[in-house]
Amino acid sequence: MMPSKLQLLAVLAFAVAMLLIENQIQKLEESRARLERTIARHQLAEVEQRHSEDLGRESPPLAEKDDMVIIYNRVPKTASTSFTNIAYDLCGKNRFHVLHINTTKNNPVMSIQDQVRFVWNVTSWREMKPGFYHGHVAYLDFSKYGVQGKPMYINVVRDPIERLVSYYYFLRFGDNYRPGLRRRKQGDKKTFDECVSSGGSDCAPEKLWLQIPFFCGHHSECWDAGSRWALEQAKYNLVNEYLLVGVTEELEDFIRILEAALPRFFKGATELYRTGKKSHLRKTSEKKPPSKETIATLQQSDIWKMENEFYEFALEQFQFVRAHAVREKDGELYVLAQSFFYEKIYPKVS
């Protein structure tokens, strides 16, 4: 009996030690996040100070290719980390800046004062141009803030049920990006199927309502789950305000088209995605696919029908863009060469 008691004590001691280590890792992560926010505030204050000092001096205009800003208002659990890491890997070689928009508690809706600050920063922060901004923030219409120039928006969407399932398990088991970080729902072993069958809040149809409001923006009705107006506004913004919106399931094609359209930022991105160590870096742990019964239950909700309608709309638009940008040959996609030219140019140059 004595060895058994000793083994039990050893197991308990090990478990306590692991909990203490996880707690310390969590505290270190929180301290790191606070430090990063403090550094960012100081850097921003310095930029604002320099900008104030330069108001009376006329700065030379930036070259057109450098006076560019891309905003990737990334939807959670759509392979956004995999794509963003490509930008980080390319920024040194292609000479552009990458900035993470870190909002408090990952709140995608900014206060009106933060909206004005953000728009002003993005448009006037010359030192950060060309710039690639990314973060979990809802779409902002820059034209309503009285500034010159608008950024180019890009984004990626995912099948709404697959996105929710991935997020559900991410909150409980994390991923292989930061495996030691303690997650909010860690310890909850209930599967997604069990959650749906028991009517749990973390898998309720309302949790599907995310991609529509991210594209709809900062209007109150955007965040009213099931709003037909929000769906139509999201579609309008996707078509009129986004340069390109891809889908998680066809991420490589999205990257290839971006490289063809914006080589200033994405030259070499396709090859890096295929061969780089950071491709598909973030994978949710312990994820179990939902049953047919669970999927059928969610698909009965009006919210799923709207989110799925938006996803299908985005997919159709992306496939249309792809059909006019690339061609397939021997199982490989090739970017089409320039297919327009100028002629009959008058008056003639002597």
UniProtKB/TrEMBL annotation:
Where in or outside the cell is it found? Golgi apparatus membrane
Q: Which UniProt keywords apply?
A: Coiled coil, Disulfide bond, Glycoprotein, Golgi apparatus, Membrane, Signal, Signal-anchor, Transferase, Transmembrane, Transmembrane helix
Kindly report the protein's main subcellular placement as a broad class. Answer: Golgi
Q: Which residues form a coiled coil?
A: 18-48
Membrane topology of the entry: Single-pass type II membrane protein
What stretches pass through the bilayer? Answer: none
Q: Which SUPFAM superfamilies match?
A: P-loop containing nucleoside triphosphate hydrolases
Q: Which GO terms describe its molecular function?
A: heparan sulfate 2-sulfotransferase activity
A Gene Ontology cellular-component term: Golgi membrane
Keyword NADP set for record = no
Under InterPro entries, the record lists: Heparan_SO4_2-O-STrfase, P-loop_NTPase, Sulfotransferase
**Signal sequence residues:** 1-17
**Could you say which protein family the record assigns here?**
Belongs to the sulfotransferase 3 family.
Record's protein name: Heparan sulfate 2-O-sulfotransferase 1
